[in-house]
Design a protein that fits this description.
The complex is a heterodimer of chains A (317) and B (494).
Chain A (H helix, E strand, L loop, with lengths): L1 H9 L3 H21 L3 H25 L12 H18 L11 H4 L2 H12 L4 H9 L1 H22 L26 H24 L7 H19 L1 H7 L2 H24 L14 H32 L4
Chain B lengths: L5 H18 L4 H29 L2 E4 L10 E4 L1 H28 L5 H20 L3 H20 L5 H31 L4 H11 L3 H17 L9 H7 L2 H26 L4 H5 L2 H21 L4 H22 L2 H32 L10 H4 L1 H15 L5 H15 L3 H27 L14 H19 L2 H15 L4
Helix pairs in contact in B: 1-2, 1-4, 2-3, 2-4, 3-4, 3-10, 3-14, 3-19, 4-5, 4-10, 5-6, 5-10, 6-7, 6-8, 6-9, 8-10, 9-10, 9-13, 10-13, 10-14, 12-13, 12-18, 13-14, 13-17, 13-18, 14-16, 14-17, 14-19, 14-20, 16-18, 16-19, 17-18, 17-19
Classes of the chains: A mainly alpha (317), B mainly alpha (494).
Chain lengths: 317, 494
């Protein structure tokens, strides 16, 4: 990771920098696995190494792959960075050692999660129950952040209404990513892969209760199939396959499903996001609530990823 | 019955309104109606919450019904009830104004996105103020920041994009520093709940990790509130944003950041002790004073009136930080009153800018020659709000400066009191420049015919202007709330 980071600073070729950042994220994901944080690793792998790399590449396609060389060096920036780094290191001096069982984080809030969460929510994966129920409101906020990001991209560089005709004629002037179209191997492989990846996304979505996974990762994987489709079969075909209003509905309805689950709990006599109120049996209610909000996260995340990619890829160069 | 859920509904309603606005793309008028309804609902809810807090004390709402440090808690006490009312009130007044102003200043295809972003921003700011959980605060900080960046970039001037870019960079550093600080606190205490943090920090207060956390939080929040010298993102962002956005953000976004600073210092870090332990007071005071003078001084030389007011905001934030740095009941109350008062008058002034832009498509001071005769109501609003900014008696500006001077004298720091008065004199100069051009310069030859701004713009503007006079004459209510909140905070921050 250190080598990748230094390489990213030194290299001038932005294509290589993006690749290195993907490698950086992948090694970070491996590191999280070593630290037993499998859910975090999964997210890092799908978001950091996967979709972020693709989005940065599509940005590069819009701009240039060489970094402009600046002559002057900004010394004050260096001083600020050094001070911030020094304070960070200073802060680590009194931290508890890694893995110290007496560290405050292992003694205060976490033990209750470990002890009670399975009984209270019926979900074996503690990370999922903390994310979707104990701190479910944070996750609603994060889903909204994703929604905000995609809507921001629409506001900043989206071109608004643009008619896409059905059936782009063969041999039409290739537009953007559709240049990969003539490669039969790519097309056949993509056609084989896309259904498998879609099924995998549903598996990750549904299996978040038991193993690593959940709405965020599933949404990213689901979205990536459309990105793959766009890369092989062209952006215009993808715009036909998944229309603008479908994308917007996905983005919006995920947040609405999530918040709506909370409101349903509220109307049934509980507090907001108190899933126990959803069904007669609190544990069943928790289980249903967690399933619904994870679904909301997945829908918004996939809709947002597809939207962001298509807007980037659909820009004129 | 439903009023039990008011603490969460005030965030939830604009948050749900945002995706609905996105779905209503073909009907920009409907998105405006939804955003306006959401903002009025929030005003109703926050005012009723403030009265409830005044009656019966702090309200706690458990999200998901999980007990506090394990789940997330909304905790409404006097301090944030006060801030919530400010945000919601500004939103409720700016929304009716936005309809005409936004049609003129934002591309028609993006109007539905404008209202989507506005709802998100409102939800984010209210969420920051309502929460009792330090990490949840970060999540809503992100929502309000992203939507704020986008709102600013929707200005038609291409320079809005570079201004936004700069704000994105600075804002991201700020948010990252904040979350680093929170991470360090979590590492040392094992909790994210603010009250729980406050209870557990004293045991580890002397560790270097906590010291570093304090430093990161201060710088991170300082970036967000545009504390001098971390203010460089602010002038351009406010200048090139659409007028309604500037009026809303200038009176809420930085105010919420000031609130976060107060909350961190006085609730999480336990109040006055950190001012004794570290040179926090000296640092804040020097930066506040430098900001007051630098901001006002630079404002004097601006050609663009919106930019001038933006620099003036840097100076006004200085007064608030100065109030915090006293760490006395009067000083903190003064800072909080100024938070409220500055929101009123700055909102009024930026709304006036929107009226002027609506008619003459410029906010350069030179282009305002003779406007006093041609847009009498608009310019009268500018004069009244400007007097308030200077701090003339019978306006809100006077009230807050009065309390700040009192707080300085209470401590025996008369040079600071003198500096507060001196910096107000700088405001006289920059406000006078505009007044002089508008009232005492003749209309240039061949200038296009200009009429008064439409009522839909004037009414919200004058509501703000009259509010800034009303609360200047009868300051007892704001003082009562701010004083009670400051007493609570200084007394250990319950």
């Amino acid at each position: 990771m250190a080598a990748a980071a230094i390489g990213m600073i030194r290299l001038r070729n932005l294509f290589a920098v993006v690749m290195l950042s993907g490698i950086f994220s992948l090694s970070a994901a491996a590191l999280y696995v070593v630290l037993d944080a499998v859910d975090v690793a999964f997210t890092e792998a799908s978001v950091g190494a996967g979709i972020a790399t693709v989005l940065m590449l599509s940005t590069l396609a819009l701009t240039t792959t060489e970094e402009a060389i600046k002559d002057h060096r900004n010394m004050s920036a260096l001083v600020v960075v050094l001070i911030a780094g020094a304070v960070l290191i200073y802060g680590t001096l009194d931290m508890p050692f890694y893995g110290d069982p007496m560290a405050p984080i292992h003694l205060h809030v976490a033990p209750l999660y470990l002890r009670d969460s399975i009984v209270a929510t019926g979900v074996p994966n503690v990370v999922t129950s903390v994310l979707a129920s104990y701190r479910g409101y944070d996750t609603l906020g994060e889903t909204t952040v994703i929604f905000t990001a995609a809507a921001s991209v629409m506001a900043l560089i989206g071109r608004g209404r643009r008619k896409v005709k059905h059936g782009v004629p063969e041999g039409a002037p290739s537009h953007g990513y559709s240049s990969m179209k003539p490669h039969p191997i790519l097309r056949v492989t993509a056609k084989l892969l896309i259904p498998a990846i879609l099924i995998y996304a549903f598996y990750v979505q549904a299996h978040g209760d038991f193993g690593p996974g959940g709405g965020f990762q599933a949404g990213v994987i689901f979205g990536s199939t459309f990105i793959l489709y766009a890369l092989i079969f062209g952006v215009d075909n993808t715009r036909i396959a998944i229309r603008g209003w479908v994308r917007r509905t996905m983005m919006a309805s995920g947040v609405l499903i999530y918040a709506g689950t909370g409101v349903a709990a509220l109307l049934l006599g509980g507090n907001f996001l108190d899933y126990s109120a959803l069904l007669h049996d609190p544990v069943h209610g928790q289980h249903l609530g967690i399933f619904l909000v994870e679904l909301g996260v997945g829908v918004t995340v996939s809709g947002s990823m597809i939207t962001i990619f298509l807007i980037f890829a659909g820009q004129d160069r | 019955m439903i009023s039990v859920h008011f603490p969460v509904l005030l965030v939830l309603v604009p948050l749900i309104a945002a995706p609905i606005c996105l779905l209503l793309r073909p009907l920009p008028g409907a998105t405006w109606a939804i955003a306006t309804a959401a903002s009025w609902f929030c005003l109703y809810v926050t005012v009723s919450l403030l009265f409830r807090v005044l009656d019966s004390g702090t309200i706690s709402y458990l999200l998901g019904n999980w007990a506090a440090p394990w789940g997330i808690e909304y905790r409404i006490d006097l301090l944030n009830a006060f801030v919530l009312v400010i945000i919601a009130a500004i939103g409720a007044v700016v929304m009716p104004y936005a309809r005409a102003s936004v049609t003129r200043e934002v591309s028609p295809r993006r109007i539905y996105l404008f209202y989507t972003m506005f709802c998100l921003n409102l939800a984010g700011l209210l969420g920051i103020a309502a929460t009792g959980d330090a990490f949840n605060l970060f999540v809503f900080l992100e929502i309000s920041a992203f939507s704020g960046y986008t709102l600013i970039s929707l200005g038609r001037d291409r320079r809005a994009l570079t201004a936004t870019y700069r704000y994105v960079l600075m804002g991201t550093v700020g948010a990252t520093f904040y979350v680093i600080g929170i991470g360090m606190l979590y590492m040392m205490t094992g909790t994210l709940n603010m009250m729980d943090l406050a209870a557990r920090i004293p045991a580890v207060a002397q560790t270097r990790t906590i010291h570093a956390a304090l430093a990161f939080l201060t710088v991170g929040v300082g970036l967000k509130l545009a504390m001098f010298p971390l203010h460089t993102w602010l002038p351009n962002a406010y200048t090139f944003a659409p007028s309604a956005v500037t009026a809303f953000l200038a009176s809420t976004a930085t105010k919420v950041a000031v609130y976060v600073l107060i909350r961190m210092y006085f609730t999480v870090f336990g109040g006055a002790e950190i001012f004794e332990m570290f040179p926090v007071r000296e640092t804040l005071m020097v930066l506040a004073l430098a900001g007051m003078f630098a901001g006002s001084f630079v404002a004097i030389f601006q050609e663009n009136c919106k930019r001038m007011l933006a620099y003036s905001s840097v100076a006004q934030v200085g007064y608030m930080v100065l109030g915090i740095s006293f760490a006395t009941v009067t000083g903190l109350a003064g800072g909080m009153i100024h938070l409220f008062n500055h929101a009123l008058m700055k909102c009024a002034l930026f709304l006036v800018m929107g009226c002027i832009f609506y008619r003459i498509s410029s906010v350069k001071i030179a282009d305002m020659a003779g406007l006093g005769k041609r847009m009498p109501l608009t310019m009268a609003a500018f004069v009244v709000a400007g007097l308030s900014l200077i701090g003339v008696p019978a306006t809100v500006g006077f009230v807050s400066k009065w309390y700040l001077v009192l707080a300085a004298l209470e401590k025996g720091w008369w040079p600071i009191a003198a500096l507060i008065v001196a910096s107000s004199l700088l405001a006289v100069i920059y406000i006078w420049r505009v007044v002089e051009v508008a009232y005492f310069r003749p209309v240039p030859e061949g200038a296009p015919e200009v009429t008064e701004a439409p009522l839909s713009l004037l009414v919200p503007t004058w509501i703000m202007v009259l509010a800034s006079v009303y609360f200047g004459i009868d300051a007892s209510r704001t003082f009562e709330v701010a004083h009670a909140a400051a007493t609570l905070l200084i007394g250990g921050g319950k």
